[in-house]
Write a structure and sequence with these properties.
The protein is of the alpha+beta class and 193 residues long. Helix content is 28%, strand content 35%.
């Protein structure tokens, strides 16, 4: 018999205050640490974002579209290590990740479950050469343009997880900063004005 999966319990400032079994934390609505990963790549038309449709066997938010991957670090695991592990487990590839920001949200889900998370948004830049989705985690996946995704979130929010929109807002700010950094580098090199 496998040991129950534990999550890191945190206060409103993301300070560790203990740990709890994952389902217990979601039943009681205990605040815990989580992460949301976005893999993005640039095209001539703009940024493309890799999303997954959650497997129908997941314990909540089944069949909903969400960021590339998301989960919780274990009690003795840092955010980056956990995120890189989950990306490999869910999509079968690894990629360097960077922190884009953190947000807190709380939401009531189906089956009387409660999400109450301090969510660390991480981003990886580039297009993986090979994607091997784990069918136990992912029902489907596809690349979305930022514009298409924002329109879909506005017009059909029910097809997405509750945490996708606030996580996406943090991603967009990171992408705007990256664009500014690229333009500044080009200006410094005398390539752009």
């Amino acid at each position: 018999m496998t040991a129950p999966i534990k999550v890191i319990l945190v206060d409103q400032y993301d300070n560790v205050i203990g740990s709890a079994e994952k389902m217990s934390a979601h039943i009681q609505g205990l605040c815990h640490r989580a992460f949301s990963v976005f893999i993005v790549h640039a095209t001539v038309q703009g940024w493309m974002v890799l999303l997954q449709q959650r497997a129908w066997s997941k314990y909540h938010s089944q069949g909903l579209w969400t960021n590339t991957c998301c989960s919780h670090p274990g009690p003795d695991e840092d955010i980056m290590t956990a995120a890189e592990r989950r990306l490999q487990e869910e999509f079968g590839f690894s990629m360097p990740l960077q922190s884009a920001g953190v947000f807190h949200y709380s939401a009531n889900l189906e089956d009387n479950l409660i999400e109450n998370e301090i969510d660390h948004v991480l981003v990886g830049y580039g297009k993986p050469e090979q994607i091997r989705p784990n069918p136990e985690e992912i029902a489907d996946y596809r690349w979305w343009s930022l514009e298409e995704l924002q329109l879909a979130l506005k017009h059909t929010p029910q097809q997405f997880t509750v945490w996708l929109k606030p996580a996406l807002n943090i991603l967009i700010k990171a992408l705007e900063k990256k664009k500014g950094d690229i333009l500044a580098a080009l200006r410094n090199a005398g390539i752009a004005q």
